[in-house]
Amino acid sequence: MTRSFSLDDFVAEARAAAAAPDPLGAVERLMARVLADPDAVADGVPQMAQDEVLLFEDETISVWHERFLPDEILPPHEHRMPVVLGVYRGRERNTLWRRVDERLYPAGRLELAAGEYQVLGADAIHAVQALDGAPSLGLHVYLGALTSVRRHLFDWDSGAPVAMTDETFEAMKRRV
Q1: What is the pLDDT of residues 111-155, one digit of tens each?
Q2: pTM for this structure?
Q3: CB 3.0–4.6 Å: which of 50, 55, 83, 99 could bond 63 by disulfide?
Q4: Residues 171, 173, 176, CA angle at the centre, nearest 5°?
Q5: DSSP string of the chain?
């Protein structure tokens, strides 16, 4: 039986999870429960005009709806806070990086399909792309105010940090 899903309810539950004694664990449990029925999530999420939509943010949590497109790879970037990434449609690849001596080195790949989620730590650096020629749709819950944190993108070749702005983010995307 398909359960109904509401973005408003999800945001309210994520906010409550952020106030729990173990906020990361509470958000992870919420994501696992919600993504147990990815079709219900897909049915309950309205069409979004933008690829990245901020649903809610305060000093403890940021809740985003994300759409990754199949013809581009987002540049390596950091969040500087823990995040739970969840996919409810499509598949995506997160290429993980580590930074050593001002250089970027591949540190693995993580593929998520509809119904799956992953926790990334505050020090994670990743690049994201949709797989299988279709968009990847997901919900991301960050444990902090993502829009007020000074974050970086990282140059694909040199690993040098670049200030995260909308302009640099768009300029550093790669086409596949």
Answers
A1: 999 999 999 999 999 999 999 999 999 999 999 999 999 999 999
A2: 0.95
A3: 55
A4: 135
A5: -PPP--HHHHHHHHHHHHTSSSHHHHHHHHHHHHHTSHHHHHHHSPP-SSSEEEEEE-SS-EEEEEEE-TTEEPPPEE-SS-EEEEEEESEEEEEEEEEETTEEEEEEEEEEETT-EEEE-TT-EEEEEE-TTS-EEEEEEESS-GGGS--EEE-TTT--EEE--HHHHHHH-EE-
β-bridge mates for residue 174, sequence order: 73
Nearest CA-CA partner of 85 in 149, 43, 24: 24
Output the CA torsion sign for 59, 61, 63, 66. Answer: positive
Pull the structure tokens for residue 103.
Answer: 């250089």
| Segment 56-109, tens digit of pLDDT | 999 999 999 999 999 999 999 999 999 999 999 999 999 999 988 888 999 999
